[in-house]
Amino acid sequence: MNFSSETVDFLVIGGGVAGLRAAIELAPRGSVLVLTKDKATESTTGYAQGGVAVALSDEDEVCIHYEDTVKAGDGLCNEEAVKVLVEEGPACILELMSWGADFDKEGSKLSFTIEAAHTRKRILHSHGDSTGKEIERVLIKKARSFPSVRRYDFAFTLDLITEDGRCIGATVLRGDSIINVFARAVILATGGAGQLYSRTTNPVISTGDGIAIAYRAGALIVDMEFIQFHPTTLYSPGAPQFLLSEAMRGEGAVLRNIHGQRFMHHYHEMSELASRDTVARAIVSEMVKTGARHVYLDLRHLDRDFVKKRFPQIYTTCLQYDIDITEDMIPVCPAAHYIMGGVSTDLAGETGIKGLFAAGEVACTGVHGANRLASNSLCWRGWSSAQGPAGVH
Ligand code: SIN
Questions:
Q1: What is the dihedral of CA 279, 124, 382, 119, to 10 degrees?
Q2: Residue 17 — φ and ψ, nearest 5°?
Q3: Which ligand 1 atom lies nearest to the CA of residue 131?
């Protein structure tokens, strides 16, 4: 084992939407090192299918997005954080588009879909069901355009380094080297912890280690009981626990129990479009009642060509497991999807430890309350120069 040390201005741990957006913001203000524990494109961001929620359509308003978010969060959202999300979201999306993000359009206008617990069509999507991949592609390209941004892939952060109650860097395992990276500010953007559960939509890298290192450094960890289960993941012997986007129900897919009967109307007036927690619980109740390990998602009544065009990734993946989603009911069951709790931060992303910031799924600003509104996770703003890591000396 080799031991070394290096110094940068800003250390960003994690290469998904939160980490990359932070790196882009900080790039003009100093040297930035981005660490990812797998390859550059392997982050939860890349797995996000359905889309990104933003009040940009003619029929929508920021205040309605706000109300839907707070309602889905079961009244437990930090309302100031929700305001930041819904008010700054439109500008963030326009910025992403100016950097080259290609969201689907109908004619010359952006195409919006609806998802559970939204009362307006406000979900933008890309290449049908590959929204996260598109956003990640654009952010990776943008981050690479700054000479001040470097990255170490396959670099695992073992612990944060603190001195006199301040975070001054992190200890990183990279190949056969252990490197102490010292920085003016450290930004944790390590994503979630879905791999703690036997069924999850999360990739194998989502092991909660960002929360663990922050905890060991003495950061406040909050709301850890709020774990969101996505209602519909593929349940088929030999198949991966593949996400079947909420947008499928937004486009009209329905749920049926093992006997082929629809059931959501017994549980909520919004039926298949009730909030995620309600739908996931209803599915589990139905599984218990019928003694089955899954229910079905049914798109057979939708136009075949529309389904193939709208959900190309899902269509192709399911076909590999002999399920033609235009002809067959899809066996599905809930799986751990998103952790609303995490490292407590203020609205500038600052934790209780000087020099340590957190952003994205690892962080808890309280924006999602007890239950994140669908597609409210891909939008991450930058920091103004007065706030955030750039203000740390
Ligand atoms: C989905 O496409 O259903 C997932 C999107 C999200 O978790 O917000």
A1: -50
A2: -60, -40
A3: 2
Task: Report the separation in Å between the CA atom of 246 and the middle of ligand 1, taken as the mean of its atom positions.
Answer: 6
The rounded distance, in Å, linking the Cα atoms of 94 and 53 is 13
Q: Which pLDDT does position 386 carry in this prediction?
A: 58
* 201 in contact with ligand 1, CB cutoff 6 A: no
Spatial distance between the Cα atoms of 174 and 152, rounded to a whole number of angstroms? 8
> What single letter denotes the amino acid at residue 188?
L
Q: How far apart are CA 302 and CA 297, in angstroms?
A: 12
Share of the chain above pLDDT 70, in %: 98
pLDDT tens-digit profile of 145-178? 999 999 999 999 999 999 999 999 999 999 999 9
User: Has 276 been annotated as catalytic?
Assistant: yes
Residue 378 is predicted with a pLDDT of 87
- Cβ of residue 124 lying under 6 Å from some atom of ligand 1: no
Does 157 sit in the ligand 1 pocket, CB within 6 Å?
Answer: no
Q: How far is it, in rounded angstroms, from Cα 380 to Cα 342? A: 16
Q: Which of 232, 242, 365, 362 is nearest to 299 (CA)?
A: 232
pLDDT at 390: 80
> What are residue 234's DSSP bridge partners?
332
Using DSSP, state whether 378 is helix, strand or coil: coil
| Radius of gyration over every alpha carbon of the chain, rounded to an integer in angstroms | 21
CA 350 – CA 219 distance, rounded (Å): 11
Q: Spell out the domains of the chain, with CATH numbers in brackets.
A: 1-226+340-393 (3.50.50.60), 228-337 (3.90.700.10)
Encoded tokens for 147: 């000479």
In single-letter form, the type of residue at position 92 comes to: C
**Ligand 1 atom closest to 375 (CA):** 8
Q: How far apart, in whole angstroms, are the C-alpha atoms of residue 129 and residue 244?
A: 10
Please state whether beta strands 177-188 and 2-13 pair in parallel, antiparallel, or not at all (unpaired): parallel
pLDDT digits (tens, 9 = 90+) for 301-358: 999 999 999 999 999 999 999 999 999 999 999 999 999 999 999 999 999 999 999 9
Q: Which of 108, 142, 137 is nearest to 48 (CA)?
A: 137
- Helices 62-72 & 79-98 angle (0-180, nearest 10): 130
Rounded distance between C-alpha atoms, residue 286 and residue 331, angstroms: 13
Cα(68) to centroid(ligand 1), Å: 16
